[in-house]
């Protein structure tokens, strides 16, 4: 995934943030549902109260209400109805509808075509009325916009009121009941309380605070875990690349991480000791074998037969070169010095000039100027091996260098017979040759490509072999830029 972080710290923080977001979303949904249920319950209880007290209720006349309002307006510091209405609209809070939404008696059910009943509220209303001793034959509860209700629209004063700004979305809970022994319906209309303002803002602030606390604490905790892991990774990479004289990592972090670092330090120390022993052993082997070979080379000078002497000298030289290749292959990855910056085109030109001075048909292609940190001696050895193979099997070699994305490609091409596709992978293994003889001019010892592959891998790259469509073989050392 494009936005999925690669580090352990990033993935853990993203997982915590995602889980927290899901939890807060569910919590917000549950809170909203609970608030919605409370609004409906408040309206339903008010409707039930009106139905229960309908017989005994004495409704105030409109004139009395107006007189009361005039008395209120005449009080010192009193707020008139118009002032209160303007203030509430300016605050974004529509004033409550008047109490003219009294009980309506009707022969028909309040449910209209296309409207949905609320079975849960109907059951609650029936239960409330039965507890109050009201015998109910049938109950209907529904929700309707106040501006679409026929009862409201039949009253001009109410219609003018709901036509004002702020009343467009006011809803009514309409409860209709038919009592036992009666044919008609008693219908109560109650304004559904508006949603509590600021609830979502409170949830957002709460979520933000939880994010800051939890994600911040997780960041500190995970950083304490991942910091020593990053140091361990860098140490392992450096050790794997052959860097010597590395200081052991100081154990830090949680106990599990400390134990891992301690075990790594012990393993690294043991491997370093084994590699040092290997280098000492290889040096001894090289000395013990090359010394008698050199003495043997001197002794054959006394052989009078020139042809026989030349064969013996070639055999000794062949053994010496094979021994050099074996020792070089064993020492790759144990560089005594770090890689150095070098201009690759100059390096390639110098190698090609060596073959040109020997009269070999080696030619140069495109050579862009690219600087890279490399092990100069080893990379020079790899190029020599690839060019020597091309000259040995095809007689010519064309060397070029190019860059593709973040990869440097050192390419050696020839026009020889190539390699069967089924044997390309095997050709990179030690002592595997494209020609069955041990003749140095044809088959060699079979270590050239293996050395080139090991050197490419020492630089973090790879060696690729591919048959050309026009004939011949293409060998490429691919190095990350």
TrEMBL record:
<dbReference type="InterPro" id="IPR003660">
    <property type="entry name" value="HAMP_dom"/>
</dbReference>
<feature type="domain" description="HAMP">
    <location>
        <begin position="223"/>
        <end position="276"/>
    </location>
</feature>
<feature type="transmembrane region" description="Helical">
    <location>
        <begin position="199"/>
        <end position="222"/>
    </location>
</feature>
<keyword id="KW-0067">ATP-binding</keyword>
<keyword id="KW-1133">Transmembrane helix</keyword>
<keyword id="KW-0547">Nucleotide-binding</keyword>
<dbReference type="Pfam" id="PF02518">
    <property type="entry name" value="HATPase_c"/>
</dbReference>
<keyword id="KW-0597">Phosphoprotein</keyword>
<feature type="domain" description="Histidine kinase">
    <location>
        <begin position="284"/>
        <end position="481"/>
    </location>
</feature>
<keyword id="KW-0472">Membrane</keyword>
<keyword id="KW-0418">Kinase</keyword>
<dbReference type="Pfam" id="PF00672">
    <property type="entry name" value="HAMP"/>
</dbReference>
<keyword id="KW-1003">Cell membrane</keyword>
<dbReference type="InterPro" id="IPR004358">
    <property type="entry name" value="Sig_transdc_His_kin-like_C"/>
</dbReference>
<protein>
    <recommendedName>
        <fullName>histidine kinase</fullName>
        <ecNumber>2.7.13.3</ecNumber>
    </recommendedName>
</protein>
<dbReference type="InterPro" id="IPR003594">
    <property type="entry name" value="HATPase_dom"/>
</dbReference>
<dbReference type="InterPro" id="IPR036890">
    <property type="entry name" value="HATPase_C_sf"/>
</dbReference>
<dbReference type="GO" id="GO:0000155">
    <property type="term" value="F:phosphorelay sensor kinase activity"/>
</dbReference>
<dbReference type="InterPro" id="IPR003661">
    <property type="entry name" value="HisK_dim/P_dom"/>
</dbReference>
<dbReference type="InterPro" id="IPR005467">
    <property type="entry name" value="His_kinase_dom"/>
</dbReference>
<dbReference type="InterPro" id="IPR050980">
    <property type="entry name" value="2C_sensor_his_kinase"/>
</dbReference>
<dbReference type="GO" id="GO:0005524">
    <property type="term" value="F:ATP binding"/>
</dbReference>
<dbReference type="InterPro" id="IPR036097">
    <property type="entry name" value="HisK_dim/P_sf"/>
</dbReference>
<keyword id="KW-0808">Transferase</keyword>
<keyword id="KW-0812">Transmembrane</keyword>
<dbReference type="GO" id="GO:0005886">
    <property type="term" value="C:plasma membrane"/>
</dbReference>
<feature type="region of interest" description="Disordered">
    <location>
        <begin position="63"/>
        <end position="91"/>
    </location>
</feature>
């Amino acid at each position: 995934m494009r936005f999925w972080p690669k580090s352990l710290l990033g993935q853990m923080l993203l997982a915590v943030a995602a889980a927290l977001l899901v939890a807060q979303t569910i919590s917000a949904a549950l809170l909203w549902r609970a608030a919605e249920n409370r609004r409906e319950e408040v309206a339903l209880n008010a409707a039930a109260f009106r139905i229960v007290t309908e017989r005994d209720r004495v409704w105030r006349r409109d004139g009395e209400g107006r007189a009361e309002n005039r008395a209120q307006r005449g009080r010192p510091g009193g707020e008139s109805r118009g002032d209160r209405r303007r203030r509430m609209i300016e605050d974004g809070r529509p004033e409550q509808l008047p109490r003219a939404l009294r009980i309506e008696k009707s022969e028909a059910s309040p449910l209209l075509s296309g409207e949905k009943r609320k079975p849960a509220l109907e059951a609650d209303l029936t239960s409330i009325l039965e507890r109050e001793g009201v015998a109910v034959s049938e109950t209907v509860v529904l929700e309707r916009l106040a501006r679409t209700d026929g009862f409201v629209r039949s009253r001009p004063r109410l219609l003018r009121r709901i036509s004002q700004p702020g009343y467009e979305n006011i809803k009514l809970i309409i409860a209709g009941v038919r009592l036992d022994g009666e044919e008609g319906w008693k219908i109560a209309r109650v304004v559904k309380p508006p949603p509590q303002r600021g609830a979502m803002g409170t949830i957002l602030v709460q979520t933000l605070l939880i994010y800051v606390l939890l994600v911040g604490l997780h960041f500190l905790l995970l950083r304490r875990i991942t910091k020593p892991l990053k140091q361990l990774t860098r140490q392992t990479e450096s050790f794997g690349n052959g860097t010597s004289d590395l200081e052991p990592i100081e154990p830090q972090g949680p106990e599990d991480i400390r134990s891992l670092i301690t075990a790594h330090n012990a393993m690294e120390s043991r491997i370093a000791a084994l590699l040092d022993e290997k280098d000492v052993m290889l040096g001894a082997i090289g000395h013990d074998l090359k010394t008698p070979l050199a003495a043997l080379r001197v002794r054959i000078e006394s052989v009078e037969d020139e042809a026989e002497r030349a064969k013996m000298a070639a055999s000794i030289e062949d053994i010496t070169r094979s021994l050099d290749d074996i020792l070089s292959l064993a020492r790759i990855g144990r560089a005594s010095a770090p890689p150095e910056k070098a201009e690759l085109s100059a390096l390639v030109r110098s190698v090609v000039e060596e073959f040109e001075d020997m009269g070999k048909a080696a030619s140069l292609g495109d050579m862009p100027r690219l600087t890279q940190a490399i092990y100069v001696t080893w990379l020079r050895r790899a190029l020599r091996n690839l060019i020597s193979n091309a000259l040995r099997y095809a007689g010519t070699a064309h060397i070029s260098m190019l860059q593709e994305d973040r990869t440097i490609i050192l390419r050696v091409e020839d026009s020889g017979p190539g390699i069967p596709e089924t044997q390309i992978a095997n050709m990179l293994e030690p002592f595997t040759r494209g020609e069955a003889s041990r003749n140095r001019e044809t088959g060699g010892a079979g270590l050239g490509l293996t050395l080139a592959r090991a050197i490419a891998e020492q630089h973090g790259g790879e060696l690729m072999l591919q048959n050309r469509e026009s004939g011949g073989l293409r060998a490429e050392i691919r190095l990350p830029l």
